[in-house]
Structure formats: C-alpha cells, structure tokens
Write a structure and sequence with these properties.
Layout: H1 4-18, H2 25-41, H3 47-56, E1 63-66, H4 70-79, E2 88-91, H5 92-95, H6 102-112, E3 120-123, H7 126-135, E4 139-143, E5 161-162, H8 170-174
Parallel strand pairs: 1-2, 3-4, 4-5
Amino acid sequence: LRAWAPSYRIGVWEDALAEFDVSDSYLGEWMAEQFPTVRRSYIKRWPDAFRVLGALRGTMPMAVLTNGASCLQREKLEAAGLEDWFDVVVVSGDIGCGKPDPRPFALCAQELGIEPAELLMVGDSLERDVIGARSAGYQALWLDRFGSQHDPARDPAGVPRVDSLDRLDVDALRNGRLKLD
C-alpha cells in the first residue's frame, strides 16, 4: 500500500485536473504532495464535544467507531486531542468493513462489554452512523451541525437530531436516558 498510494494520489489529482481541461503532471504531483498537510490543517475541534466528553468521562464507557484507513483516523483523533478520551476505538480499516455494516457496531459493543440496545451512537452521518447504528440495535442521535434538508426535529427514520452537543442533557445520559433540551 505504501508503494502504491503515492502514484494513486498523483493519478487522482491528475484526473481531477483533467476534468477542468488541465493537463499538468507537475501540478498533479504538487497537489498530491500538499494534500496531507492541507487536510491536517482542517481538522476541527468542536468545543461542545469536549464539554460533553468531559462531563461524561469516567461515568460510562465511551467509544469511537469510525470509517477509514486506521493510520488516517488515528491521526485525526490525535490531532483533534481526542485519542485519550475513549475506552475503545474501532476503525473500519482495521477490521475490513465499515459503517453502515452492522459488524463494526457489533464489535464496538463487544469490546465495550455492553449490549447494543444499551448503547447510544452519536453521529453526523445519517446513513452511516445513525441508520447503521439503528440497524445494529443501537439507540442513535443525529448530530446535524450544518442543517440538512430533512425535517428540523427528526430525520426520516424518527431519530432525534441536534445541531450541537450542548443540547444534550448530560445528567440524563449518565442515567441511561437520551434527553434533549
């Protein structure tokens, strides 16, 4: 993979440039080289996430379930300052399948030692996180920070939706209930 990835990245950028009638192999190489640094600069730390994680830390087991290459996802967790906040980290690149497939959700529940029905998935992808979690037997909350075109109170599957984690009642979560303000 390490030998293949650089030429693949260059090819992807050259193909993207070709979509705009730009044929410049040097530019494709340069963009492929710059992309990882630029991507890292866009990692966002959400203050509401740290407030909620801080309030829940030590009161219940918590996990991250994420899709992507393990090295990239773990790099993102570290860059965002999240790597030490969770008891379990499940990355699709480590297990060969990703959300919305129910297997990563099942593995996460197994590693936490908690029945799926007792777990709450808070995710920003309606399809991968929320619907995937529901199909795996989890409770789910859609974190829709940017406002989709769905009904403002609920998504099509009837899952609660918030635009900020500050809307969560942390005391209710500690007692196993999802309550929104």
